[in-house]
Structure formats: C-alpha cells, structure tokens
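Action item from last week, closing it out:
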Amino acid sequence: MKFIGLIGVMAMLLLAGCKSGSEQDSAENDLDAARGFVQAALKGKYDRAADFMLHDSLNDERLDAVSRMELSSDEKQGLWDASINIHSRKLVNDSTSIIIYSNSFHKENQDTLKVVKKEGKWLVDFKYLFDHE
C-alpha cells in the first residue's frame, strides 16, 4: 500500500513540474526573449526562433532569408557551440528595450535587437537588426 502511495506522490510531483508547450515558449522578460531567439537561431532552429519573434511580413521574410543562408559545417558547428554575450540593455519604456549582444563565435560582431511587449508577451522585432542606425 505504501508503494502505491509513493507512486501517487511521484506522479503528482511530476505533473506539477510540467508546463504546457506554450508556457515554456513564452519569455518572462525582454532578456529571456532575446536569449531564446538568438540561441535558437545560432543552433539553426528557426522555427523555434520564430516562437520568440514578433510576426509581421518583414520579420517573417527576413527570418526566412537568414534560414536559407548556406553555411559551412565549421560555421554551423561554431554557431551551435557559441554562447551569447549581452553587452547592454536599454529600457526605452515599459514595453520596449534594445539589447546589444554578440556571440562567442563572432566575438567582434555586436548586433542589436529590439524587444517589445505585445499582448503580454515579450517578442523580438527582428527587422530592427537591419534597420537601426
């Protein structure tokens, strides 16, 4: 009888620790959204990166173009293994921030992402990477 009780407790703990896919895909803040987007893109998981992105025609088009870029196997491995370095975070207002980052594979190249809060979710506005000064 104790064995059945133990299994029941373990099952409850396991279920309590599980989240639905949509909860795991959402970022709690601007930095989580930026990290999730960049890490997925570095690993070539563009469908996953899209989960952290604000969807409009230009963002979708640019992510699609990046996903089709040809990379050597050394580049793919280097990006896969790369870590993200956050250099600065500027809070523009309560729903917008600018994140400057690089990755350890391309240390000298810093990029900039705009992260916005829309309908309660933090999302990367990918086009800002190409359009800002």
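Closing note: Helices lie at 2-17, 21-25, 30-42, 46-50, 57-67, 73-81, 128-131.
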